[in-house]
Amino acid sequence: MQRPLILITNDDGIRSLGLRAAASACAALGDLFIVAPAVQQTGQGRAKPVGSSGQITVHTLDLGGGRPPVTAYAVDASPAQVVEIALVELLPFHCRTGIEPQRTVNLAISGINYGENIGEGVTVSGTIGAAMEAASFGIPALAVSQQTQAEHYWSHDAALDFMATAGMVRQFAAWVLERGLPPGVDVLKIDAPEGVTPETPWRWTRVSRRRYFFPVAPERKSLDERARMGFTTHVDPALVEPDSDIYAVAIDHVISVTPLSNDLTAKVTIPA
Asked: What is the three-class DSSP state of 199?
């Protein structure tokens, strides 16, 4: 029986240790097809910028654990564009070079992201954008993030420990490969709290309607000066919904698992 083919991608770039942790966790579950942005693409959502060159370079990744190195592809493109290129262009090439027949991807995993993706701003996330792009091709997808301090959002800090979150990736990847996603679900969004351990419990949640990341104006000497908007996080337990992803991760410090749909229609009854 042919092993499942698992697409591993992210928005932090091909050198991300979170990407390697996800790939290593799933190596025993199927054949890996690793395609990621060439550089950091945090905050791109599902954008498809016209300025992306689409240039592809081949890398070799060491996943550790005595496993042989694996081939990976870095693309100068946004996370959503990376998924498009992976499925439409690279997959046939990857199968030919591996002397394999054309295959389909059975599962897409985006992450493990540096930083949590919770609250009403989840559509900003390139991690989620990549997963939703895969889902638009009919591929079940996981979007996995780990809460970190803000200084890690744009870095690949080797001090971060992704082991426990990687265990969750493996658990849910095996579950989806065996059973598929529940009806009406296109993506499972998984967010682990800072300090997560293998004993940290998880629970089903929904996306909070509350803002979690708040913009902070830069200090400019003049309006034409280049500056980047900063941000901070804020949580008011009295206002955050108890069944939400924000409450789970930022207040109760448990793992949040949120079923997402590419259908963004509000669940209301529309008058005839």
From this structure: coil
Residue 174 CB-half CA count within 13 A: 10
Taking Cα atoms as reference points, which of 258, 168, 169 lies closest to residue 205?
258
Nearest to 24 by CA among 79, 76, 58, 72: 72
Residues 6+ apart with CB under 8 A from 79: 9, 10, 11, 37, 41, 44, 46, 110, 126, 127, 129, 130, 133
pTM of the predicted model as reported, rounded to 2 decimal places: 0.93
Query: What is the per-residue pLDDT across 214-243, written as a single tens digit (0 to 9) for each?
Result: 999 988 888 888 888 888 899 999 999 999
| Residue whose entry in the numeric block shows the structure tokens 């190596």 | 27
The neighbouring-strand residues paired with 191 are 145, 256
Taking only the tens place, the pLDDT of each residue in 151-193 is: 888 777 777 899 999 999 999 999 999 999 999 999 999 999 9
Nearest to 19 by CA among 63, 85, 76: 63
| DSSP H helical ranges for the chain | 17-26, 79-85, 91-97, 126-136, 163-179, 245-246
Q: Cα–Cα distance between 261 and 153 in angstroms, integer?
A: 26
How far is it, in rounded angstroms, from Cα 190 to Cα 46? 18
